[in-house]
């Protein structure tokens, strides 16, 4: 059975929390050692070295849990950005996806925004795999800038959008020439509350710029 990123991290944090809680409860009840009467040799008085080994192990467990909270996906990260994005957003990406830009963090900011380029020919098959709620055309189909967040050129009654908060800012052009908005998809999210997808087309080579955002608020 494979676990999603959210399930993996929830399980990990539950195990860490349970281990720390059990150790602290036993220590509080026995008031002799971290692990109770069967581990008397780990008391600070009788064996300070072993006692501090146990303390260090607990500290590492707690720090690891905090790092996972601060940086979701830390322990399940792959060296390939596409694999990490699949885990975070819960969707497959077009096989030609490249030039990834990522802004925002699930737990610190309540969302994660990603921009990448891909072949336009890959989009039809890719979009057919998305759990689409609604599909909307741009309110203004003139050349625009996909690096701009908020409603941008999309209808203001859209169900989803990329928030204009500064933590999601910072996207830059990895292409040359103008881009035109094509379609916006509001989707159910496999890992969060909702998924937002924007499709843009580059004027020079006809390929695509895609921006996705998952919200966890």
Characterization of this structure:
It is a single chain. The protein is α+β, with helices and mostly antiparallel strands and 217 residues long. It has two domains: 5-70, no CATH class; 80-215, no CATH class. It has five helices and six strands. The protein has helices at 5-30, 48-70, 81-89, 106-109, 123-127, and strands at residues 98-103, 111-118, 132-136, 179-187, 194-202, 208-215. Strands 1-2-6-5-4-3 form a six-stranded antiparallel sheet. A hairpin with a 5-residue loop joins β5 and β6. α1 (5-30) runs antiparallel to α2 (48-70). The longest helix is centred in the N-terminal third of the chain and has 26 residues, at 5-30. It is elongated and about 70 Å long. The model is unreliable at 73-79 (pLDDT under 50).
């Amino acid at each position: 059975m494979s676990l999603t990123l959210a399930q993996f991290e929830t399980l990990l944090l539950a195990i860490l929390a349970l281990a720390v809680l059990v150790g602290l409860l036993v220590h509080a009840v026995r008031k002799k050692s971290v692990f109770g009467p069967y581990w008397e040799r780990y008391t600070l008085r009788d064996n300070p070295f072993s006692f501090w080994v146990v303390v260090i192990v607990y500290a590492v467990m707690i720090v690891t849990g905090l790092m996972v909270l601060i940086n979701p996906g830390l322990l399940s990260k792959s060296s390939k950005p596409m694999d990490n994005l699949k885990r975070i957003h819960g969707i497959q990406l077009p096989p030609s996806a490249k030039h990834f830009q990522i802004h925002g963090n699930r737990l610190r900011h309540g969302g994660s925004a990603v921009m990448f380029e891909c072949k336009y020919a890959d989009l039809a098959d890719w979009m057919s795999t998305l759990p689409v709620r609604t599909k909307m055309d741009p309110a203004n189909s003139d050349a625009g800038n996909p690096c701009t967040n908020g409603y941008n050129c999309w209808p203001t009654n859209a169900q989803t959008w990329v928030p204009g908060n500064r933590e999601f800012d910072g996207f830059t052009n990895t292409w040359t020439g103008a881009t035109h908005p094509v379609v916006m998809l509001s989707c159910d999210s496999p890992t969060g509350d909702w998924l937002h997808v924007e499709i843009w087309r580059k004027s020079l080579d006809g390929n695509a710029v895609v921006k996705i955002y998952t919200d966890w608020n």
